[in-house]
Amino acid sequence: xxxxxxxxxxxxxxxxxxxxxxxxxxxxxxxxxxxxxxxxxxxxxxxxxxxxxxxxxxxxxxxxxxxxxxxxxxxxxxxxxxxxxxxxxxxxxxxxxxxxxxxxxxxxxxxxxxxxxxxxxxxxxxxxxxxxxxxxxxxxxxxxxxxxxxxxxxxxxxxxxxxxxxxxxxxxxxxxxxxxxxxxxxxxxxxxxxxxxxxxxxxxxxxxxxxxxxxxxxxxxxxxxxxxxxxxxxxxxxxxxxxxxxxxxxxxxxxxxxxxxxxxxxxxxxxxxxxxxxxxxxxxxxxxxxxxxxxxxxxxxxxxxxxxxxxxxxxxxxxxxxxxxxxxxxxx
Length: 332
Ligand SMILES: [Zn+2]
Ligand SMILES: [Zn+2]
Hints:
By secondary structure, the protein is an alpha/beta fold. It is built from seven helices and 19 strands. It has helices at 54-64, 149-162, 177-187, 201-209, 263-268, 283-293, 305-314, and strands at residues 8-11, 14-17, 22-24, 32-34, 49-52, 69-71, 77-80, 83-89, 97-103, 106-110, 132-137, 168-171, 194-196, 217-219, 232-235, 252-256, 273-275, 297-303, 318-321. The longest helix has 14 residues, at 149-162. Bound molecules: zinc ion (ZN) (2 copies). One zinc ion binds next to loops. GO terms for molecular function: exonuclease activity; ligase activity. It holds the Pfam family RMMBL.
């Protein structure tokens, strides 16, 4: 065989695995798609066949309806064309996986999106040594260091208790972040009903069906104002400042995102309480992961490629930016 990884071809729309005639996270409909996780910037509808974890397939089912499903559980290996394919937890959202590709003695791991800190709604990231590690770099700058999640949640619950006439309105993406915010609050003793926006109902229900206990959830729509005082309401980021939220009792507007580290982003979104909480690796997690995986080459799909590429080079690891398009649309 020639150059390392010559059987893997990156395109702006996704990663093509030649000897499998399959694509990883393709943005356009394909005959064979291997999907890392359910976020819309990775999982799309319309493929002829989809290999993914059972949880990711269930999430895609909620969003795209019926499809030709090829479930692969964590740790299981299947043959696609001439390639052995397995799925390993990525710690990003429920069902999220790194896709491990073995072909003619070379191993390539496509991380998808991932994080290293604990998340009570999904399986933790598993380090898988390989020849080529294909990583994201959403927060690939040394300034990005996410704070402790529990401390962030404690800060928010303290505000809720200090101002019982108001409600706390948390903007959180419908897949992963919303459920993680709710679960983290449960783990920190908040057991009152939590109110959710209608757009988050189906995925919250699915998480509960798949064994993630979120406690008592109620739909916020149509609930009398007074019932919501001193309560937590979770909504999609887009609903934070729209007509929907105007019916709430003097909401303290919070937004759960890694980008809340940047004050300007919080201001742009009119966020009173930035809740710094990310489902992506921060700078330390990215560099620690690369050290632990110890690949011969690092390929970077999207994000702040330059700084991570430079870090790799100074650590004697060959690195290459792939410039995939359309990523980081849905989640952060
Ligand atoms: Zn994602
Ligand atoms: Zn993504």
